[in-house]
Fold this protein.
Amino acid sequence: MQGKIWTISNLLSLSRIILMMPAGYFLYTPMQFHREIAVLIVLVAVSTDALDGYFARKFHQISDLGKIIDPLADKIGVGIVVVMLTFFGDIPLWFTMIVLARDLIIFLAGLYIKTKTGIILPSTMSGKVAVSFLALTLVLAMLKYPMFSLLYDVLIWVTVTLLMVSLSVYAKRFFETLKEYKPK
């Protein structure tokens, strides 16, 4: 399915980007339960990530556009949240730099592969696991509940480890794809 753009799965991916506007608003705007509301919106966005892949497979709507906007929506959403949380002092700058650098490297490598080979590589399972742990870490940082502080401290290091593992998996696939590619 290469030509169809307005599929359920692509709309769900786009909705993740759109949901970051109200999530950012509630995260930024001091009012009662503003962080809890922001977390709920982020959790809705995270659920669309699982649903878009499900619908793409179920309705045979896997497309090149979907392979681009799904991970791009993740990167935009994560980027907005980590920058805001760093600005508010809820997560350390070094963590944000790791998250943003990893995402930028993966994005630029994907563009290079697409330009060089015409191939659009989908997300990997290690990337999905890393992003799931990242989402949990960010949710805990958004809530700032003292009872979760130890869990947050542990999760931040688990998340960094998983992000680095997934980056190495992406790097390996990048070089293997370039090595195996034979121009026609």
User: Anything to note?
Assistant: Residues 33 and 120 are 41 Å apart (CA to CA).
